[in-house]
Write a structure and sequence with these properties.
Length: 411
């Protein structure tokens, strides 16, 4: 099997990047190195073509890494011979290697032949030992010497690292408290995928910031677990803060519950005694609030009380009372006047009228009449009927004397 010239490159482990992260100087240096490798060769035109296919490569690091991936694709290894293809290899995703501690001198540009193009593998691990069969390198394997000339070694076979520990579920579980939930979202955009992790808030926590990352699927396979470690730690810190706040709130609630509630100060009241004609409805208002009132004694708040007394016969009257001390008020003096009729003979039938209103009277018994003009009518057997007109004024009581003339008997 013939020798194949190979360009090796150790790509530093990528840190989690946002979709619009800036381009790193190492990315630009890598592109310059690739250009020097193909300049003046048959791959120069291909390099220029790939560059034109990425007009927005300088927009963000995500675009620039896609450009670099296509450039490095120019150095893809040719189809393996039957002997190599027959060798079994573990099906795992390659792990990006850490950068070398010391810079490696730039190798001299190689002149590829049409029959065999350079076959670099940017994801090959520096601790992988070339072997006729694909194998998984053990930890602690010796790293290749810096500056080793690719022409002095046979073409390496791309080896796969030991399977990455399946820590994704463990990382996701670390984002949650007991009984917690999260939503895992996967979105494909062109050759990249966007992963979104949306945890449900911890008790007492505001809406948490989601984890969002856009990269290639291969990058995700190799680096997602590592990329999530910082976010998982932040979620654990957030849970701890929320838990402590909840404990403090519970302690405060318990302390407040154990403390006896203060006894509200009893509002000062006064006794207000009200008098009014039978059938009067009373309504009170103090400070814009209704105060229930009845004819008789009432416990009312101290202040200025507005009272409205309403009666179907005497109408509506109002009174403002200061209730800073016990008081009495007689609405009958506002509703009308007390009238007493004395008639001879005392057995005479008495009534008083005002329009359609007719009220029966009794000798010597006072009655409350509404203000206005009334007519008193008296009748008795063997006596002539007598009528007398009176004028009633509110708060002005009066006594009426009437004597009926005796009539001569005819038989």
């Amino acid at each position: 099997m013939g020798q194949v010239a190979v360009m090796t490159y150790t790509q530093p482990a990528l840190a989690p990047t946002a979709q619009h992260a800036p381009i790193l100087p190492d990315d630009k240096a890598r592109a310059a190195q690739l250009w020097e490798s193909v300049k003046g060769t048959a791959l120069e035109d291909d390099f220029r073509l790939v560059s034109r296919q990425h007009p927005d490569k300088d927009a963000s690091r995500m675009h620039y890494l896609a450009f670099l991936a296509d450039i490095e694709g120019l150095f893809a290894a040719p189809e393996a011979d039957p002997w190599e293809a027959s060798q079994p290899a573990p099906v795992t995703q390659p792990v990006l290697s850490a950068p070398q501690p010391e810079p490696t001198p730039e190798p001299e540009p190689q002149q590829p032949t049409p029959a065999a193009e350079p076959v670099p593998d940017p994801e090959v691990q520096p601790n992988a030992t070339p072997a006729p069969e694909a194998s998984t390198p053990e930890e602690g394997a010796a790293e290749p010497e810096p500056g080793r000339d690719a022409q002095d070694a046979p073409a390496p076979i791309a080896t796969l690292a030991a399977p990455v520990h399946s820590g994704l579920i463990a990382q996701l579980a670390g984002l949650l408290a007991d009984g917690g939930e999260l939503t895992f979202q996967l979105l494909r955009v062109g050759g990249d995928v966007t992963i979104g992790i949306f945890p449900k808030p911890h008790p007492g926590e505001a809406a948490p910031v989601p984890f969002m990352l856009t990269e290639t699927p291969d990058w995700m396979d190799a680096n997602l677990v590592t990329a999530m470690q910082g976010y998982a730690g932040a979620r654990r810190d957030a849970f701890s803060v929320a838990q402590q706040a909840a404990q403090r709130q519970q302690a405060a609630n318990k302390k407040a519950a154990d403390k006896p509630a203060p006894t509200p100060a009893k509002a000062k009241t006064s006794v207000l005694t009200l008098k009014a004609a039978e059938g009067t409805t009373l309504k009170g208002t103090l400070g814009g609030k209704d105060v229930p009132l009845v004819v008789g004694k009432n416990d009312v708040p101290q202040g200025t009380l507005e009272i409205v007394a309403t009666h179907p016969a005497f109408g509506e009257v109002k009174k403002t009372v200061a209730t800073h001390a016990n008081k009495e008020h007689d609405f009958t003096e506002q509703q009308g006047a007390r009238v007493t009729v004395n008639v001879t003979p005392q057995s005479a039938a008495l009534e008083v009228t005002k329009g359609d209103t007719v009220i029966a009277l009794h000798h010597g018994i006072e009655i409350l009449l509404a203000p206005g003009t009334w007519v008193v009518n008296a009748q008795a057997a063997d006596h002539a009927t007598a009528n007398q007109t009176i004028s009633v004024k509110a708060g002005k009581p009066q006594v009426i004397e009437m004597t009926l003339k005796e009539e001569q008997r005819l038989f």
